[in-house]
Amino acid sequence: MNISVTPLQYTFSDLEPCMSRQTVELHHTKHEQGYANKLNELYQGDLPLIEIVREFATRPEKKIYNNAGQLLNHHFFWQSLTPKYQKPQGQLLDAINDNFGSFDKMVASFIEQGTAHFGSGWVWLVASNGSLQIMTTTNADSPITTPNVEILLAIDIWEHAYYLDYTYQRGEFIKNTVEKLANWEYASQRLAATR
């Protein structure tokens, strides 16, 4: 089975000015494609990507897990972005207000946790046991291997996701992503599927 990168629902330049064409193109065609190429080289089975991640998460040999995890995390990341930004509404907005106090406080939590995270990784909005929370993971890890946790949004905080556009200003990248690019319709659909 050939495992491929996530097809984008927008062009490389559609996320400008928050995310440049160069960043999106390099990220998708070089970084993510590299994970796909390596995974296809290492893994010859027929499990779907999400099951590869779960199957290899606890094995001592991490090459398959790392490449599968990064590929799956990018799948969530690209779907978490949209050039047609709209603020969260309905059930999702109610959940944000109930769990964070307001949309602005949720954004602040994204920024705080994402900038405090040491090294490469991911910052996530997740639903867990009926509540929303922000969490971070390191390297190729994700909430997908944690019971009773559903991913609503993902933001890549590896340097290749933002350094060309923001240099060392990870917080500014997270802020712009959440406030101007986050696909809240996608998050809303994922939240509805958990209820």
Describe this structure in words.
The chain is of the alpha+beta class. The protein has a single domain, classed as minor pseudopilin epsh fold (3-Layer(bab) Sandwich), CATH 3.55.40.20. The protein has 8 helices and 3 strands, in the order H-H-H-H-H-E-E-E-H-H-H. It has helices at residues 21-42, 49-56, 63-79, 90-100, 103-116, 163-166, 170-181, 184-193; strands spanning 121-128, 131-138, 149-156. The chain has a 3-stranded antiparallel beta sheet with strand order 2-1-3. The protein is globular and about 45 Å long. The mean pLDDT is 96.
SSE order and pairing:
Elements: H1 21-42, H2 49-56, H3 63-79, H4 90-100, H5 103-116, E1 121-128, E2 131-138, E3 149-156, H6 163-166, H7 170-181, H8 184-193
Antiparallel strand pairs: 1-2, 1-3
Helix pairs in contact: 1-3, 2-3, 4-5, 5-7
